[in-house]
Design brief:
By secondary structure, the protein is mostly beta strands. 0% of the residues lie in helices and 62% in strands. The strands form 2 sheets. Strands 2, 4, 5, 6, 9, 10 and 11 form a 7-stranded mixed sheet that branches.
């Protein structure tokens, strides 16, 4: 099966930076897109950033100019560099792999368990 494991979350002061990483493991043939979502208690999970295997990116308006998504396709890894963090960025950040083709299983989407990011004012 496929597992996504996030790392890099933590506590940081406003204006600081964090770098999240997500490694997808398993017998993976191909991943179409990898994305980061975030969620705060009582609210819907929202898209933060997406990057396709071809390098196309998409960002939420609230993070444009501050966050950068990157991928290492050969390592099935996606990163999220977060700069100029604000208290409103506080959330659990989830890694999402879309269109994951696993030999013998097919193509599905997968989620990580999330990593907490807390930005203090």
């Amino acid at each position: 099966q496929v597992q996504l494991v996030e790392s890099g979350g933590g506590l940081v002061q406003a204006g600081g930076s964090l770098r999240l990483s997500c490694l997808a493991s398993g017998t993976i043939f191909r991943i179409n897109a990898m994305a980061w979502y975030r969620q705060v208690p009582g609210k819907q999970r929202e898209l933060v950033a997406t990057m396709t295997s071809g390098g196309n990116t998409n960002y939420a308006d609230s993070v444009k100019g501050r966050f950068t998504v990157a991928r290492e396709n050969a390592k099935n890894t996606v990163y999220l560099q977060m700069n100029s963090l604000k208290p409103e960025d506080t959330a659990v950040y989830f890694c999402n792999a879309q269109g994951v083709t696993v030999l013998g299983i097919g193509t599905n989407n997968y989620w990580g368990r999330g990593t907490q990011v807390t930005v203090s004012s």
